[in-house]
Amino acid sequence: MLPPIYITILFLLLIGFVLFFTYKAVNYAATQARYDPAKRKKLLLQLFGGVFLWMILTAGAAMSGFLTDFTARPPRLLLVLVGSFGVLLLLMTRPTFQALVHYVPKHWIIYSQAFRIPLEVVLWWLYLNELIPIQMTFEGYNFDIISGVLAVGVGFYYQRYPKGKRILGVIWNILGASLVFTIVGIAAVSVPGPLRIFNNEPANRIIACFPYVWLPTLLVTYALLAHWASLQQFLKR
């Protein structure tokens, strides 16, 4: 069963937003760091070349049916998720990333996490169309929408008071990252296979299909990377 087109359109708009914001933030930071135009262009080409390559690889794996074989051992979807966290760790530990993140205004990164509000709407719509189980929505055990709602308020606070209390930013980031890991765990044990704990139907098969494979491989990666970047800003003395 295919999702209604309006759900897929909203999902792809969220992908576009994350990519656009990442471009604006990196370009702004590189400009503030006084990178010359050639160096800035090279940085953006390397970053988005890697991102688009990863998107093409994961999309190809989903469209070919490679990921939908839930009987394979090890689980093929698990390999893709491990690869996504590998990409995340690579970006987090890059000296260039750690240097540039401090040039991005605090509230930019926080506001960007508000994309999780419409993302939760997407998940809810998928549940209503019997494409994902209830535990992956805010009607079940997914409370990640709280992170998106709080992002609006916390972002506004640091927009008004750039040097406001750091503890608020630290707590919000820890809470937001914890909620991401929670839903990732719930999603993982809702997939058909040996790790499955939630046996209610429908199982979580849609994240092995295009374009929803980009939910764990791109949107989750972005959310965690943004929390890491924001924490770097608040913990720096």
Description:
The chain has 237 residues and is mostly helical. The chain has one domain. The chain contains nine helices and no strands. The protein is globular.
Topology:
Blueprint: H1 5-32, H2 37-63, H3 76-92, H4 95-100, H5 106-112, H6 116-128, H7 145-160, H8 166-188, H9 214-235
Helix pairs in contact: 1-2, 1-6, 3-9, 5-7, 5-9, 6-7, 7-8, 8-9
Features:
single chain, 237 residues, mainly alpha, 9 helices
Stretches where pLDDT falls below 50 for ≥5 residues? none
User: Number of helix segments?
Assistant: 9
What is the N-to-C succession of helices and strands? HHHHHHHHH
E-strand count = 0
Q: Give the count of structural domains.
A: 1
Question: Can you give me a brief rundown of this structure?
Answer:
The protein is mainly α.
